[in-house]
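Input (structure):
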């Protein structure tokens, strides 16, 4: 199993190309199930989760072709052509779903197109129990009959789905995406209320519109979908938006090392809440013609952060912010309002000398003068990224085990960081 070794202490200077967004790419790939024409997606990141989704779609009968790499002067994004001419299999098996929770995103498109779908229940995960009840209740609103059998969710709608008003009691990114995809092939109008407003949902909705779907309210918390049961969508060519979470992570890498980097391709409008907090901590963030520049003094100030649905501060940057605050002057209260138990990084950061205590849904970070390198364990994707950040500034060597978590969401992280002067390497064992 690979490990990452980091020798801390170098300020990051240079440019980092930001990849396409994993969390936008996954639902966009699932949208290929809504058409029997080719959906060509470009700027896909090279990530383990993308391969997992490709394998799952292939299992359902989607032919997937590589169309070469994009070369925009920087590292490459992949272009895939997805063609769901016919659906071979409406079951998403346990072995594929357990590798990635986002596999649940095939449920809505499959039941809408085929009138039935069987998807293994995604289990719990390191960041909490993460149920799928909101996905299921919403599909029931569209007329699907849902049952649970031997660890599988079965959804049936032999006469097709029908448009309806769906009011989510809690904001859910995945459930909004699932129901949006189902609603475009449901008969008549649907209204999705209290929809998540994450940019990844707008990316999905815009692609669906290019495929011929009628959707209004994109970007707001109420989406109207005018569905059609009798014809599938068209194909299209669509470029996946830039990854705001990857950009935020590298912004914090620059900040924790007192560095100065340009995040090529990053968009300030997708990162406002993060930029506000970084600025309050003393980081200088500005828009440039090619992306976003981030520069920081050697010491930052502690700032309090609460995670919220978009446009609030993203939960996917909470662990990285905790690492950043661990060497800032003063204290920072980091409150996690989206997921229970998303503090798995705290004991690992503590092994490196961070002073962090968890009180319910908050952690209190008291900045220390220095972190010290140590062997640590990656527990989930974003927790791993926080350990990389801590390693960049710690004295001596940090060894990060279970690197496969990082590979799910960060493309060639060691190359991107070493290109800016970090001493970081992947070691196969
Ligand atoms: C997506 C992102 C993930 C991010 C999260 C929140 C992808 C592939 N993943 O995950 O990186 O951290 O949004 O921004 O895009 N919930 C329920 N019942 C449900 C669904 C969700 O109770 O049926 C709860 C969850 O446990 C959580 C909250 O709702 O507490 C938000 O989860 P949700 O927005 O659904 O996250 P994901 O779509 O799984």
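Output (sequence):
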């Amino acid at each position: 199993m690979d490990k990452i070794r980091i020798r801390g202490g170098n300020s990051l200077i240079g440019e980092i190309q930001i990849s396409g967004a994993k969390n936008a790419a996954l639902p966009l790939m699932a949208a290929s199930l809504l058409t029997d024409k080719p959906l060509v997606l470009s700027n896909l990141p090279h990530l383990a989760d993308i391969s997992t989704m490709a394998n799952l779609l292939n299992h359902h009968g989607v032919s997937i072709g590589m169309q070469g790499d994009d070369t925009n002067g920087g590292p490459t994004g992949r272009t895939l052509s997805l063609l769901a001419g016919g659906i071979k299999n409406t079951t998403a098996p346990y072995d594929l779903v357990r590798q990635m929770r986002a596999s649940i995103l095939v449920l809505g498109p499959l039941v809408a197109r085929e009138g039935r779908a069987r998807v293994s229940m995604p289990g719990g995960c390191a960041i909490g129990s993460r149920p799928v009840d909101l996905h299921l209740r919403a599909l029931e609103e569209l007329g699907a009959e849902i049952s649970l059998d031997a660890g599988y969710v079965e959804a049936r709608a032999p006469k097709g789905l029908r448009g309806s008003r769906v009011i989510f009691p809690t904001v859910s990114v995945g459930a909004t995406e699932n129901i949006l995809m189902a609603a475009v092939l449901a008969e008549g109008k649907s209204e999705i209320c209290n929809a998540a407003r994450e940019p990844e949902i707008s990316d999905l909705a815009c692609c669906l519109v290019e495929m011929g779907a009628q959707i209004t309210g994109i970007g707001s918390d109420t989406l109207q979908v005018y569905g059609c049961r009798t014809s599938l969508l068209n194909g299209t060519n669509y470029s996946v938006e830039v990854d705001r979470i990857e950009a935020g992570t590298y912004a914090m890498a620059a900040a924790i090392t007192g560095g100065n980097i340009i995040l090529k391709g990053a968009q300030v409008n997708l990162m406002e809440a993060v930029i506000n907090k970084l600025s309050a901590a003393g980081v200088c963030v500005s828009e440039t013609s090619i992306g976003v520049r981030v520069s920081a003094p050697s010491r930052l100030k502690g700032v309090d952060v609460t995670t919220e649905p978009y446009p609030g501060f993203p939960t996917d940057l909470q662990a990285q912010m905790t690492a950043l605050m661990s060497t800032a002057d003063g204290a920072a209260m980091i409150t996690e309002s989206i997921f229970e138990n998303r503090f798995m990084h705290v004991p690992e950061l503590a092994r490196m000398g961070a002073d962090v205590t968890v009180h319910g849904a908050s952690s209190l970070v008291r900045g220390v003068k220095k972190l010290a390198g140590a062997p640590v364990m990656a527990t989930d994707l974003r927790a791993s990224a926080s350990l990389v950040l801590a390693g960049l500034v710690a004295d001596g060597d940090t060894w990060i085990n279970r690197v496969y978590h990082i590979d799910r969401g960060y493309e060639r992280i060691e190359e991107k960081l070493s290109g800016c002067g970090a001493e970081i390497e992947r070691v196969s064992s």
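Notes: The radius of gyration is 21 Å. The pocket of uridine-diphosphate-N-acetylglucosamine is lined by residues 23, 26, 101-102, 128, 130-135, 170, 172-175, 196, 200, 315-316, 338-339 (CB under 6 Å).
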